[in-house]
Design a protein that fits this description.
The relative contact order is 0.14. The protein has a 7-stranded mixed β-sheet with strand order 5-4-3-6-7-9-8, sandwiched between helices. The chain has a two-stranded antiparallel ribbon with strand order 1-2. A hairpin with a 2-residue loop joins strand 1 and strand 2. It has one domain: Vaccinia Virus protein VP39 (Rossmann fold, 3-Layer(aba) Sandwich). It starts with 7 loop residues before the first strand and ends in a 7-residue tail after the last strand. The protein has about 250 residues and is an alpha/beta fold. The chain contains 9 helices and 9 strands. Helix 7 packs antiparallel against helix 8. The structure holds S-adenosylmethionine. S-adenosylmethionine binds next to helix 1.
Length: about 250
């Protein structure tokens, strides 16, 4: 690991490939137990609106198949399962066993497990056949993935022709919001992390990783480079978050 080229960002640090993956794993092992509570506190519940907006773009109907990548504690997967109904199926996948275990307990408690399977896997090397899913979602996950281009390509491959990719992620807010947002991110978030989750470093990483993530247009290019067509994005809450949508062309339209 010591000889790795430091080609990747872990927040504001430059690290090697395996080092990034390990450090991200440490973050989510540490925050898993308090993840849902912290999400509500940090965003004052607004993450629920961002996720609802994403779910409005799935175009899923009864009987279809959906994949939620880096799905963590299962917020999207639970709702995707309702969209595809009993005759459809959803796979919730994440690289981190602690996050999946929280998700599993939450889904069991809510009784929403009938058509959801959990699989631990890396977004860069999704263990599914090509052309399997009608919709692939990834919410607040891509930023944490070491090789984002590889992950986008892997998501492209497992989508059926005609299927949709939805990437919900923090992005670049408009200039009016920036000073307030910076103050909140670098002063309030780590303190909240310290008080609630006894872990300020992970929330410092959160703030830094958001700043290092590609902005709206750069991510749009990356999505197109991975093979998607007709890609577009929607800014939410002044661009604090953006939903990117990409389509895998069906054979008829190629
Ligand atoms: C901020 S959480 C988002 C969880 C959930 N999607 C949500 O919106 O609440 C980021 C998730 O990405 C996962 N993750 C990080 N790197 C990953 C990778 N290479 N492949 C799959 N999941 C990854 C983490 O384990 C974590 O559960």
């Amino acid at each position: 690991m010591k000889d790795e080229k430091k080609d990747y960002d872990f927040g504001f640090q430059r690290v090697g490939e395996s080092e990034k993956t390990e450090k991200v794993a440490e973050v989510f092992d540490s925050v898993a137990g308090k993840y849902d509570l912290m999400n509500d506190l940090m965003s004052q519940g607004i993450h629920r609106f961002w996720k609802r907006f994403t779910l409005m773009h799935t175009a899923l109907t009864e009987g279809m198949k959906a994949l939620d990548v880096a799905g963590g504690t299962g917020d999207l997967a639970e709702n995707l399962a309702q969209q595809v109904g009993k005759t459809g199926s959803v796979i919730l996948t994440d690289i981190n066993a602690s996050m999946l275990s929280e998700g599993r307990n939450k889904l069991l408690d809510k009784g929403s497990f009938n058509n959801i399977a959990l699989i631990q896997s890396n977004a860069e090397t999704l263990p599914f056949k090509d052309d399997t899913f009608d919709c692939v979602t990834i919410a607040f996950g891509l930023r944490n993935v070491t090789n984002k281009d590889k992950a986008l390509k892997s998501m492209f491959n497992v989508l059926k022709p005609g299927g949709k990719l939805l990437v919900l992620e923090f992005s670049k807010p408009n200039e009016l919001l920036t000073p307030f947002y910076d103050f909140y991110s670098f002063n309030v978030l780590p303190k909240l992390g310290e008080w609630i989750a006894n872990d300020s470093d992970s929330y410092q990483y959160l703030a830094e990783s958001i700043r290092m993530h590609p902005d709206q247009d750069k991510l749009l290019n990356m999505i197109n480079e991975a093979g998607f067509s007709g890609s577009e994005y929607f800014n939410l809450t002044g661009g604090i978050v953006a939903l990117h949508v990409g389509k895998k062309l069906s054979h008829e339209s190629t």
